[in-house]
Task: inverse folding
């Protein structure tokens, strides 16, 4: 988690500073990072491409992913949302929707319920509010959906343990997106995690619907999706700089969070968060309107994406 602390003195000062603060990261650096240095050319790590992620999938992992793609189309039909253009690996065969999602007394063409949830661990980040292990911690918490308890670990890559070692998390740069899918996929066989781009073209405001569709599909399938966010920035939908997630109002961080539930046909998403503002030892759960979650994802300097 990369953290920038900013306190408001007056509304006038807030407006005056908004542009440079939100996009250039010129505020005081309060800690080492959560996903990439703020001044390097990567500015938040790297964004792995679809082909680079699916190149090592087994046949079983490919089938699981194909199942989710079919489920994705059911979400759009059930909730009346525009279809999302998900990544489809070359040569991927069509899957069949898992029977566990549909009552045996109905057709297998059933759709998602209006609300659903999965288990989560909601463990706090070991290094606390000013730490760097939000990546491994969000992975640990998301694996709670499968009842898999993998240690977050200690240290800094390459001298680390647990998920911190697997995700190559460092005390200086935090967690790059690249290594997260492989780490999560090796500890469970129910989901095939992949970074999925939001928006068509990537980063456009129609990514709001993508985020809803992917989140609902994941949780319907008993999986926990992960978002890479920045808590402050320009929201093109409302046309203003803002903190879209109220729990982080006044504090700018680059961070990883996971979803464990949705309600109102995906309009509201419940989050498990490994950190609490101004706390060294806390974790929290909260619910946000899906557009606010998208805005936080969109704030991050990397391309808009969801790890689903």
Result:
């Amino acid at each position: 988690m990369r953290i920038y602390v900013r306190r408001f003195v007056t509304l006038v000062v807030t407006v005056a500073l908004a542009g440079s603060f939100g996009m250039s990261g010129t505020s005081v650096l309060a800690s080492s990072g959560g996903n990439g240095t703020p001044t390097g050319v990567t500015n938040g790590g790297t964004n792995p491409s679809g082909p680079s992620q699916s190149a090592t999938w087994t046949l079983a992992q490919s089938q699981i992913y194909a199942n989710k793609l079919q489920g994705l189309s059911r979400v759009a039909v059930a909730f009346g949302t525009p279809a999302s253009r998900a990544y489809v690996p070359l040569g991927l065969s069509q899957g069949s929707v898992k029977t566990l999602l549909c009552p045996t007394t109905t057709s297998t063409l059933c759709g998602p319920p209006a609300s659903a949830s999965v288990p989560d661990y909601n463990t706090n980040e070991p290094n606390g509010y000013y730490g760097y292990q939000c990546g491994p911690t969000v992975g640990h918490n998301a694996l709670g959906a499968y009842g898999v308890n993998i240690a977050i670990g200690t240290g800094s890559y390459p001298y680390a343990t647990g998920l911190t070692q697997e995700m190559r998390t460092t005390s200086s740069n935090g967690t790059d997106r690249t290594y997260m899918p492989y780490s999560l996929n090796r500890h469970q066989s129910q989901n095939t995690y992949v970074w999925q781009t939001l928006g068509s073209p990537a980063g456009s405001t129609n990514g709001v619907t993508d985020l809803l569709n992917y989140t609902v599909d994941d949780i319907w399938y008993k999986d926990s999706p992960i978002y890479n966010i920045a808590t402050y920035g320009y929201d093109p939908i409302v046309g203003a700089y803002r903190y879209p997630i109220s729990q982080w109002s006044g504090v700018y961080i680059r961070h990883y969070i996971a979803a464990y539930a949705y309600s109102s046909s995906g309009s509201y998403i419940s989050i498990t968060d490994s950190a609490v503002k101004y706390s060294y030892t806390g974790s929290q759960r909260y619910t946000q309107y899906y557009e606010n979650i998208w805005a936080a994802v969109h704030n991050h300097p990397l391309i808009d994406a969801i790890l689903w």
In short: Residues 2-307 form one domain.
